[in-house]
Please model this.
Amino acid sequence: MEHARIELLQRMPIFGGVRADILQFVLGYCPVVAAAKNELFFHEHDQGDSLFVLEEGRAAVLKSWHGHDHLIQILKAGDCFGELAVIDHCLRSATVRAEEPSTAIRISAADLYRVYAQDLKQFTLIQMNMGREVCRRLRDANDRLFGAQMGAVDRDITPVFLA
Model:
């Protein structure tokens, strides 16, 4: 099973280029978390210190607005979530709920710090990869926001642009 987990991580942008021995090292510290259908991995505004790699199942990313949860994205096996809390040490920006029985590898900031102590170059690669993934998601969000604002212009509503 560990070999399959290493392969799963190596296919992900965050762990792309990271050596198998480093992934095996970090996986030695990482628990696998199981969530039943509709169970939360975490809730928006919770304190967070870890990211998750969805190993099996599907999960929904939800944002709360005026007391209602709104679907942002559906995650599938091989997707990761929660990395913002590892990068910025702030509260969770969304809720993640299992849409079906699911398992995920929980990788804490402390686990990544162990990589730092073991191999600085591999730690740096992971950090750069996380930054790239967050930037990719930000670009996608900017494109969606721009598209929504341009739709607003078509309806004679003045858009607000973010710099």
Remarks:
- The chain has a mean pLDDT of 91.
- Strands lie at 32-35, 40-42, 50-56, 58-65, 68-76, 80-81, 95-98, 102-108.
- The chain has one domain: 2-154.
